[in-house]
Design a protein that fits this description.
The protein is α+β, with helices and mostly antiparallel strands. It has nine helices and seven strands.
Length: about 260
C-alpha cells in the first residue's frame, strides 16, 4: 500500500513538473508584452522585436510569444528568423491556423521548394492524433483517466454484483491503457519541445557534403530558411536530412536549432 501511494505521488509529481514550465511560460510579463504588441501595431517593428526578445531572454516561452516574434521578423523581411520562430511556435501549438498560414507563406518566399516524401496514411492519422493536444493537455487528460481507472478499480473490488465487477474490470483496464497512452504522449511532447531535432539553415547558400569534411564530395545546394532534420553531429559538422529524403553534412554553424 505504501509503495502504491509513493508510485502515485511520483506519477503526479512528474506530470506537474512537466506542466509547470508551460503554465508558467504563459504568464508573460503583461506590460512588456502589451507594449511590444503596441509597437507592432504601430509598425515600429524594431522596437517590438527588442521587447519580445527581452521576454524570451527571461527564459519564458509560449506559442503566442514565438508567433509574434516570427511575425515581427517577417515584417522586417528576415525570413530565416521568421521561419525559425514560426517553427518554435508550432512545436508548442501545432493546430493554430494563422500560424500554419504564415509559416506556409514564409516558406513560399524562400529559394528552396522541397517536395516532402509522401507519408503513409496511418502515420498521418497518428500525427493528427498526436497533435490534438499540447503536452500539458495530454498530462491533464492522463490525470483524469487515472482517477477514472482508480474509480473503476474500486468498483471492481467493492461490488458484490458480477455485472458491476465486470464493468469495473474492463473499464478499468481500458482506462489504464489510455492513461499510459496519454501520459506517454505528454512525456514525449514535453521532451520534444526541449530538444532541437530540427534546424533552420542560416547560410545564404551552402553545399551539403557526403561526409563531415570540406574536401568531401558535393551532394546538393540549399539556401537560407530551409528546414532540415538533425541526424548526427561530429567535429563541427551536422548530418541532416531534407524533407525529400536527401541526406548530407553541413557545418554546424550554418544551422540554428528549432
Amino acid at each position: 500500500m505504501v509503495i502504491n501511494r509513493l508510485l502515485c505521488f511520483s506519477f503526479f509529481l512528474v506530470i506537474l513538473t512537466g506542466i509547470g514550465k508551460e503554465v508558467r511560460s504563459d504568464n508573460l510579463p503583461g506590460e512588456l508584452f502589451n507594449k511590444a504588441n503596441s509597437y507592432y501595431q504601430e509598425a515600429v517593428y524594431d522596437s517590438a522585436l527588442v521587447l519580445y526578445k527581452q521576454i524570451e531572454e527571461k527564459g519564458l516561452e509560449s506559442a503566442q510569444l514565438y508567433y509574434n516574434i516570427g511575425n515581427t521578423y517577417f515584417k522586417l523581411n528576415k525570413l530565416p528568423f521568421a521561419i525559425l520562430y514560426y517553427e518554435k511556435a508550432k512545436k508548442l501549438n501545432a493546430n493554430d491556423d494563422d500560424l500554419t498560414h504564415n509559416l506556409d507563406l514564409a516558406n513560399s518566399l524562400i529559394v528552396d521548394k522541397i517536395e516532402p516524401v509522401p507519408q503513409l496514411f496511418f502515420w498521418l492519422w497518428w500525427k493528427w492524433f498526436y497533435d490534438l493536444f499540447s503536452a500539458d493537455r495530454w498530462a491533464l487528460l492522463s490525470i483524469v483517466l487515472l482517477f477514472f481507472t482508480l474509480a473503476m478499480a474500486y468498483l471492481f473490488l467493492a461490488s458484490d454484483r458480477i455485472g458491476l465487477r465486470k464493468t469495473g474490470f474492463f473499464s478499468g483496464l481500458a482506462g489504464l491503457l489510455f492513461t499510459i497512452l496519454a501520459f506517454g504522449l505528454a512525456s514525449q511532447k514535453y521532451y520534444y519541445t526541449q530538444r532541437a531535432n530540427e534546424a533552420i539553415v542560416f547560410a545564404p547558400t551552402i553545399t551539403a557534403k557526403s561526409s563531415p569534411s570540406a574536401n568531401s564530395v558535393d551532394l546538393f545546394v540549399i539556401h537560407e530558411g530551409t528546414k532540415v532534420l538533425l541526424l548526427d553531429e561530429t567535429s563541427g559538422w551536422t548530418k541532416i536530412r531534407l524533407a525529400n529524403g536527401s541526406i548530407g553534412w553541413l557545418p554546424a554553424e550554418s544551422l540554428t536549432g528549432i
